[in-house]
Amino acid sequence: QVQLVESGGGLVQAGGSLRLSCAASGRTFSMYVLGWFRQAPGKEREFVAAVSTSGSSTIYADSVKGRFTISRDNTKNTMYLHMNSLKPEDAAVYSCAAGGSWYGSSRSLPSNYYYWGQGTQVTVSS
Known about the structure:
Blueprint: E1 4-7, E2 10-13, E3 18-24, E4 33-39, E5 46-51, E6 58-60, E7 68-73, E8 78-83, E9 92-99, E10 113-116, E11 120-125
């Protein structure tokens, strides 16, 4: 069992930056692929980024590539999402998730993830 708690959300002006954190409980944190998803009002949940168990491999949605950076620190049971050059369309509730497979398209699918945090709100003003 893994419990995930996000923090770091808030209000930022367009062009600004935020760093989200996802703190996990449990001694098996390093065994899980980790991902960030987001959901804006009236829209479906959207994949943002994922990181492999070791942290050596990452993938990003095209919409955030070059602006967001995902990382993890297995010694601290924490994952991060550094968000730069934020746009109004980045506004959403951001949730972290822990799951199984790194290979193929499954790593960007919500169904790949077993555990979810409750989310943190990111608001971007124009």
